[in-house]
Design brief:
The structure is a single chain. By secondary structure, the protein is mainly alpha-helical. The protein has four domains: 179 residues, HUPs (Rossmann fold); 65 residues, no CATH class; 151 residues, Arc Repressor Mutant, subunit A; 81 residues, Orthogonal Bundle (Arc Repressor Mutant, subunit A), CATH 1.10.10.350. It is built from 23 helices and twelve strands. The longest helix is centred in the C-terminal third of the chain and has 20 residues. The N and C termini lie far apart (67 Å). The structure holds zinc ion. Zinc ion binds next to loops.
Length: 533
Amino acid sequence: MTIMSWVDPVIGEIEEHFAEKIKRNEPLIIRDEKTLSGKVHIGSMRGIIIHGLIAQVLSEKGIENDFKFELNDFDPMDGLPVYVDQEEYKKHMGKPLFTVPSYKPRSENYPMVFGDELKEVVQPLGLPIDFYHLRPLYEAGKFNDVIFEALNNAEKIRTIYLEVSGGGKPSDWYPLSVVCEKCGKIGTTQVIDWDGKFVKYACKPDYVEWAEGCGYEGQINPFDGAAKLPWKVEWAAKWKVLGVDIEGAGKDHYAAGGSREIAARISEEVFHYPTPFDIPYEFFNFKGKKMSASKGLGASSKEVADMLPPTLLKLLMIRKKPNQPIEFDPEGKTIPNLFDEYDRLSDHYFKRHPEPFEGFARTFQLTQINPYEPPPDLWQMRFTVLSFVLQMPHLDLETEAAKLKGSALTKAEKEALKERAFYVRQWLENCAPDEFKYTILTEAPADLELDEEQVNALKKLKDEFSDESLEWEGASIHELIHKVKEESEIEPQKIFQPLYQIFLGRDRGPQVGWFLSTFEREDIIHRLESVTD
Ligand SMILES: [Zn+2]
């Protein structure tokens, strides 16, 4: 058995917890959801990928399962994102999301503008996800029984709110929101009576701050989509309606007296349904200063997914245990480090590492898009090298790659190189910090200061470069520089720094032998002459 990603022991616990159900070959139901009230924040991807990974690994072990992801299109519209037409959409505040019109031609309604985008982001990850919409379940009567139970147990639910959160509901509060028959809003209505068949409700002008009710009062049969449960009650109701076995949630739901605790008690005490196996997960901290500032909201799933190939997006989300926060700074070193980590993990997977570690190999395997197909062993160019080559107008990417690999690239390697180059280029254009940006100087910096020792060493280097018997390639140039360094008895940085300085105007750069080999030998000799004469 392969083990050692955090997911494996979690699967072990699940197997133990649901041993009977698994024995009966009944599918384990995994669930997660997103209310489609705006662009889906990148933090939500963590839940999708954690649940998706659990589904993937259960399937890998032959355990039947179904990961249902809810696109919640029935909640009230309770906020106006900055990127929608404020005037146009203000009038829809308080309506069920699915009744709000789309502003994108391809999406059927307002929430699906965000739902379609989310699907587009999730699809390339290859996770087994079964998307469903909430509203049709209500309309089909699937929630009728739990609505009935909730209304009959209104007092018990009020007590649970009070006991868990300390913030009680008024004694005339019922756990239900009716869609107003007159104005179509759901966020503005309050149920004021329940006689076992009908609810009386009032659509109040000042019930909530973000929407205005029409003042209508009516009586309605609250089933088949005419009303919906408020979200903490609904959370528990969904567990029962869908038969959920496994569902985790983000840290914000787990504060003492928080929503998870309320939902768990309602589930057990009102609906008599066991709380699902839990996987709480920590925050995803997005640190892009430029991006956050310009948008005022952090980053959407789409924006971050666009920065990374799907395998790396998966790695970003699964490399840490769920109980550890994820820090993501696209304007710092997060992205280069992530690519390097991916390459390191692949060294363990393909046993290129002298002491391959099974846990790293396992993590690599879990990042793959098709878990049933062994990934091909590809030569990949390191992120930092690739980012350097792309900034050098005199270099051809494939030629340099073949030089570094030591042989021609295979077709698959060329494709992988092209894909990686696409992401690196984007990163350079949009967010790379200055330390990763290079420009080749047309001449050595005028203020370059060299002491006598350095001048002598560089002169010697120039003479050696002029020797035609020296093969003009990375390894031999590298060896030669070390030889000159030894012979001149000079500190390493005193010879390396000026080599970067005279071409890049900075103290550091890519591996120096390879770097010099990318230029014509004569150009190097001339440049060295210009600083040593
Ligand atoms: Zn109304």
